[in-house]
Amino acid sequence: MTMRALASDLPIVLQDVSHQVRGVAVLAGVSLTIAPGAPTVVIGPNGAGKTTLLRVMMGLIGPSAGVVTWGGRTAVSATRRAIVLQRPTMLRRSAAANIRYALGSAGIARAQWPARTEYLLALVGLADLSERPARRLSGGEQQRLALARALARDPEVMLLDEPTASLDPAATRAIEDVVRTVAASRIKVVMATHDLGEARRLAGDVVFMHHGRVIENAPAATFFDHPSTSEARRFLAGEQLD
Question: Cβ of 33: how many Cβ atoms within 10 Å?
Fold first, then answer.
């Protein structure tokens, strides 16, 4: 069964959105449309505003200026959106119990919990670790569990903040496999990453940010093969940006 309401949160539209923290502009005049389709990958140097952008899309923080709409509406509850932060907190209980807690928080009927928990653990490759304490899982396993908890909400949009940061190549591949599966199920994925290889592997379109601004927003092939700005060309070449 599904929890989804009839109204869609897509597209997510930011119109000239700025966000300030203690007088410093973390986002500066961002205009962007997040539409259904393949994953949107947000890249840029540290401090570019990637995390803040995801938090604004989720509705966790509001803009200091500008307007955000979800499916043409403002002030929409985040029941159809889910976010996984870079360092998710694991509850002091088993992997399966973490998912059951998420299902309960999402309002899923208790009778559905066993089947949903089994399905979600299998989806993220943790079926054999269902009773292991979540805090004893490896970093990559904890990230996959965090993805499963987010999916317990049956989201239409999943926002991921550098989900493979500090993970080894095998753990990164496992996370990327989950992202591909999620995207294939028509859930819109918006993911921030510092890994250009990962962006190439996963992105349908790329949002390149610097100093809180969107410098480029283009299909992935166009961005990587024919970047239109000097900042993007320098970033792709591995140069530091001012």
Answer: 13
Is-contact 56 62, C-beta < 8 A?
A: yes
| Tokens encoding 220 | 């992935």
Query: Can you tell me the distance from the alpha carbon of 46 to that of 49, in angstroms, rounded to the nearest whole number?
Result: 8
**1 confidence band (pLDDT: 50, 70, 90):** very low
Both tokens of residue 52? 């803040």
Predicted confidence at residue 86, as pLDDT, reads 86
With a pLDDT cut of 90, the percent of the chain lying above it is 90
Nearest to 132 by CA among 88, 94, 101, 98: 94
Listed in sequence order, the residues at least 6 apart from 235 whose beta carbon sits closer than 8 Å to its beta carbon are: 43, 44, 45, 208, 210, 241
pLDDT in the model for residue 6 = 59
pTM: 0.94
Q: Which helix (H) or strand (E) holds 233?
A: helix 230-236
Q: Which CATH number fits domain 12-236: 1.10.8.60, 1.10.1840.10, 3.40.1260.20, 3.40.50.300?
A: 3.40.50.300
200-218 pLDDT, tens digit each: 999 999 999 999 999 999 9
Query: What phi and psi, each to the nearest 5 degrees, are found at residue 35?
Result: -110, 165
- Residue 148 CA to residue 92 CA, distance in Å, equals 16
- The answer to whether the beta carbons of residues 52 and 42 sit under 8 Å apart is no
Q: Please, which residues bridge with residue 202 across strands?
A: none
